[in-house]
Amino acid sequence: MIKGFYEELKEKGFWCFNAQRYASGYEYLKNGLALRIARVNRIIPNVKLKCAKRQIDFETLENKFIVHIGECKLYMCSLEMCIAYKFYLGSQKDIEDAVHIFCVLKDSIKLNMLKRYLSILGIDYSDVLRFLRC
Predict the structure, then answer these.
(1) Is pLDDT above 90 for 33?
(2) Beta strand extents in 5-86 (DSSP E only)
């Protein structure tokens, strides 16, 4: 299965730059590490691919949306998950990113979903509220 994935990446003009052979890619995934995929001979921009293991991973997959870029489909996590995860990461930059996403797209944010994701990540919604003043 992973061999076929690597063959398709190559066919489509992509590569996995941190695990260039499918055997090492398999080992990365088996050990819980992420593969980094980009256009051939490029590193930026790239996407991170990993296996779902935790409840939050499965929630992210279940509540995704599709962005169409030309003929490509890109599956993205929900805005609520993106915001919650940024708060989970907790750096000043991540929190600023979360606040920016929330303020720009607040009419599209489902607060009940944001609260749910924050709770799964062990973050108290009331702690987050002090940042979300737009």
Answers:
(1) yes
(2) 14-16, 35-39, 46-49, 65-69, 72-76
